[in-house]
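Q: How would the structure tokens look for this protein?
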Amino acid sequence: MMYPEFYGFSEDPFALTPDVKFLFLTDNHRRILDSLVHGITQKKGFSLVMGVLGSGKTTLMLHLISILDPQVKTVFIDRPPRTFEELLEAILLGLGLQPEGPDKSSMLWQFNAHLLKDLAPGESVLICVDEAQNLGEEVMEELRLLANPDPRTPGPPIVQELFVGDLSIEEKLKARNLRQLLQRITTTCRLEPLSPKESAQYIAHRLNGAGGVDSEIFTPDAVDSICRMSGGIPRAVNMLCSLALSAGCAVSRKRVDAELVEGVSWILQADKSRERRRREAPWGGLLRSLGDSSPIMKVTYALWAYSLLVLGGVFFLKVFF
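A: Here is the predicted structure in token form.
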């Protein structure tokens, strides 16, 4: 039996994949949304959103896209390709266009023709690039040029761009080759970790969204432990809650206490160490670009599952023998 069934949830409240349905908005989130909506509505051009890994940037951007004016035609790039040609192809497909040729010049012609002929008055295109820190400098510069105003279409820019990335993108944008791009960014936002109070509210929000009641699932000490060990990072909160609930299910405990949370916390620490080593490696950017669906992450999740089985056996022995 999986833990959502054991605890009577309608679905997994702590899945690691982004889900707008479980979006929890803090004051920081609302300020970011207000700034971005204003910048995009006023056609300011370029925007930047930064935050540590797992802070909920992708979920927030998906929510942003859902509340934008329909006149803003959005293309969301969740995993940036390595070449500008591949990125152009993804942009065309995102606009509902089938690329007429594989080369850069033909795709650029098709993109510009779409802007001139297909967009109605007042409409614009927003290119939102997630994990933008993984873009090469040449690709980022090409993106800047892509959004240059066309003299045939006077007025505010038709193409706007939103870069979303971890904190390393701030340093990357200081490169000499990207100086002009940095100067065109008019809106910069930073998604902060949750406070301990917000983390506790986040846990309750996720549980309630799946049909659970937080006070009946986690003890106050368990919630305190999760908030402390996660550092206010939503993905870390999800991971700890999911691991603790899985451990609770393994030993048939309807209430998760701090002991269960502490017992699985080493898995979170191992994941943080793995991510740190991956970032420090010379090929770290390539590995990060593989995303959570990569074989590496699948193996990691499989190891977590195996660890939980072992952990369940340990608890079983401690409880019954």
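The chain has a mean pLDDT of 86.

The chain has 15 helices and five strands.

Upvote if useful.
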